[in-house]
Description:
The chain is of the alpha/beta class. Helices cover 25% and strands 24% of the residues. The protein has a five-stranded mixed sheet with strand order 4-2-3-5-8.
Amino acid sequence: xxxxxxxxxxxxxxxxxxxxxxxxxxxxxxxxxxxxxxxxxxxxxxxxxxxxxxxxxxxxxxxxxxxxxxxxxxxxxxxxxxxxxxxxxxxxxxxxxxxxxxxxxxxxxxxxxxxxxxxxxxxxxxxxxxxxxxxxxxxxxxxxxxxxxxxxxxxxxxxxxx
Length: 162
């Protein structure tokens, strides 16, 4: 179900189009009662959960850091801190995450955030031909090559999943 380049009109699709990064759009009907946005996307889109990634904002030594991990796993906060040479990481407050990224929780894309933040992509992404991340709103995922995700976000690649 490949989408059209840049047709979604979110900051993420605009950023990818500007950067000339090929991507596909995968809209789906979001269920407001879904327990996990990422697992919902994988199920509805018929994708393996290890190929769909969630974007989580953390606070590492009082600075925001983006962690991107497969929806099938959990974020290892110690590993995120280590990946950015920090000491201690906690999950960012959802309201802070929304203000800092310009996206709503459940639709936070690692691409096209209001301000650039240090970003760490789980190393499992590099084993896949395509990864899927939020497109900047609930009910929209984008498919792109992991190397392009690294390039467009400036991400460090490290094992940050548990």
